[in-house]
# Entry
Amino acid sequence: MQSYLSSYEMSWKGFMTTISQGALADAEAALTSALGEAAVITTPVVLGDYTADTYWPALYAKAAGTPIARPDVVVRPRTEEDVATVLAIAHEQRIPVVPWGGGSGTQGGSLAINGGIVIDLRSLAEVIEIDETSMTVTVQAGKNGRELEAQLNTRGLMLPHYPASVEWATVGGYIAARGSGVLSTRYGKIEDLVLSLRVATPAGGLMETIGVPRHAMGPELADPHDGEMGLARDVFLTRPLWGLAETAPYLHDGRAATIPEAILAHGGDAQPQRDAFAALSPDDQANLHLFLLSLTREPKVRVAR
Ligand SMILES: Cc1cc2nc3c(=O)[nH]c(=O)nc-3n(C[C@H](O)[C@H](O)[C@H](O)COP(=O)(O)OP(=O)(O)OC[C@H]3O[C@@H](n4cnc5c(N)ncnc54)[C@H](O)[C@@H]3O)c2cc1C
# Structure
């Protein structure tokens, strides 16, 4: 275990940069001046709370007393303008910033591996609006998943995103991680549910994306479409395939159940290849399909529908 962690730590160190202590002191002073003392925390015991999310090597290292990451400062913004201010200060002083949602991530994404600033977004946890006509909710990024669900439930509503980490994760963490939940096969992943985002940028401003759902880009192959495209909904997400390497089901979002379906669904730059494939005889298509399957690394599982 020790040797594993050592090589693991070395791999982190390959990405590490050194923060100028002068710049850090200047950033702390600017943060305190802009956000107030209560929002800018450097107490060692509090910093210790941000040395591990649920990434197991981080948990192990923290338990062993040798955390692999530790912020120099934790900031708890009270407004979205505060977030933009933190980013502007960090940008000016070239200090790394890491957002912290619920800390339930399993990949170490919220760890300050270079030190610097952690912005704990749980202090931004307001439900701004529940629109029962449009069935939308506007909520701040640090809202805990379970609390949001409970608040919606009091109105007889629910969030279609329900991950196993709902107790700990935040709405911002859902989106940053492009999470899925137990209802995602019915309602889509979190990115299918988001209408609009207000985003703080390192240049110090806030921007808002236009309020359109992802499906406003047009129907996707998995959308129900009564067969007019020749594909019925029940062919999707029902036949686990193991194709070229481990990429199946195909079309990235798993909407093509076979390699020929994926080829025939392509257009754009791949249009000539798609047309060439479509022009092959059924036997030649089958032979090509067999050849492509022969490239498979894991050809074992075939589940009947
Ligand atoms: C027991 C358990 C069950 C889980 N089940 C699921 C599951 O069913 N589905 C699933 O998708 N995941 C699951 N996860 C993984 C994890 O909970 C999710 O990825 C979750 O969405 C992370 O949210 P968080 O608020 O805890 O984010 P954090 O862990 O705090 O952060 C995750 C990443 O998002 C970034 N981030 C957080 N908030 C913001 C923000 N406001 N703006 C920009 N970046 C931000 C962080 O910097 C980090 O890179 C599970 C984890 C555990 C421990």
The pocket of flavin-adenine dinucleotide is lined by residues 53-54, 98-106, 109-110, 121, 141, 163-165, 168-170, 172-174, 176-177, 179-181 (CB under 6 Å). The longest strand covers residues 127-131. Residues 21-35 form the longest helix (15 residues). The chain has three domains: 2-123, 127-194+209-217, 233-294.
